[in-house]
Design a protein that fits this description.
By secondary structure, the protein is α+β, with helices and mostly antiparallel strands. It has 14 helices and nine strands. Strand 6 and strand 7 form a beta hairpin.
Length: 502
Amino acid sequence: MAETKREIERKYEATTGSGVPDLTRVPDVATVVDEGVVELDATYHDTPDLRLAADSITLRRRTGGSDEGWHLKFPVAVGVRDEIRAPLSDTLPPDLAALLRSRVRGGEVVPVVRLRSARDVRRLLDADGGLLAELSVDTVRARRLPGGPRASWTEIEVEAADDADPGILDAVEKRLRKAGVRPAHAPSKLARALAETAPDDHGHDDRPDAPPPAAPGTAGAVVLAYVRKQAEAIVALDPAVRRDLPDAVHQLRVACRRLRSALKTYRSVLDRKATDPLGAELKWLAGELGVARDQEVLAARLHARLDDVPRPLRHGPVKARLRIWDTARTKAARRRAVAALDSDRHLALLDRLDALLADPPLRKAASGDAAKVLARAVRKDRARLAARVDRALSLAPGHERDLALHEARKAAKRARYAADAARPTLGKSAKKVSTRVKKVQSLLGEHQDGVVARATLRDLAAQAHAAGETAFTWGLLYGREEAAADAAERALPEVWARAASR
């Protein structure tokens, strides 16, 4: 089973005459313990076209040291990476392979670089003997695989201990800089190895550069940039969902929805004959992810509502029943989300997005002025939202109005996403539309969440009754959800009036 470690480190050039200074002069460092030299042998893997390296992801199989095995690293921030470890084996562990699936697709990873390092380790301890950081001087020998150029260098690496204040790295760096040591120019050993062992003809192409699919400043260029951003987010968030990182399902679902909305909103720019089938697949993926996200939102809502009920009004094992309901549905929803990511249908969608961006089906409006084309599209989506809100408000309270308000909510999302896509071009005017429409969307979302919650509360009440428990508390919560929905409906005309104003 793979384990994850948050790695916070910095790298420095070790040039001639820039030895390691006395680190006991660093604040909080009381003792420096020399751990000696360990020999490390790492083979880095990537696709033949180096897709992982392009996204600052590293995959290696390393022997030697206390953590030999497979290591997969994802960037988190500058100098911060999540390292996912798996035991040493001859082949790539399935857990790690799954995390690379959205990038590798149907291909394979192959050895690209071998790094052999002599690591001289020093442990930096505080007055109580607690570990603050490890500093290592690495003498590295790199070789491009198979049988390619070689390179060698020496670098200094400082890594904060797991429970230490990362500020120790600032203090150590200050001391190193005083000794003439400077930060490394490459973010990782692999990046440096790839640069220094690149074949002589690497990156050279006698063919003329292909023209961009749409001229800068045109509607096509702006829309394609937005589409590319969302497509890249879908690829990048795939492993985050698999790792069950906070908010990952929500972010991936939003990327799908934003992209689908853009394909609809900007049909004058991209031919719908090509984009409608993609939209259908994005709707499918968002739907599969939505089960998990909707359960997450609903469970949080019901737990919060129950916590607000005074203890004397909590009749029966209501908390236990809600917890059991939540656990079972959450597990099932997560399995469904991961199954969607594991499917061939998902990989086919990613390939089709790549194909769309490589050869976009541009229409006549794509060559038009971006500001004019995008402003027209935003106005159209606002008008669509207005029609749906007006229809919902014309209906009497009840099931039909609930459905109409839900349709208005979806229109609000589309109008907001359209404005967000136009913000780099339209600036403050698009930002104002997005901000105002978001308030409408939030209010309608609160209403829809209440509709879903009431249906769930009916089911929980029925289950409690069938088990011989009182359904009083579930009925109480149902009544509070009805009151909240009524309040949202009463607030909508005023919120919408502000959003619709110029």
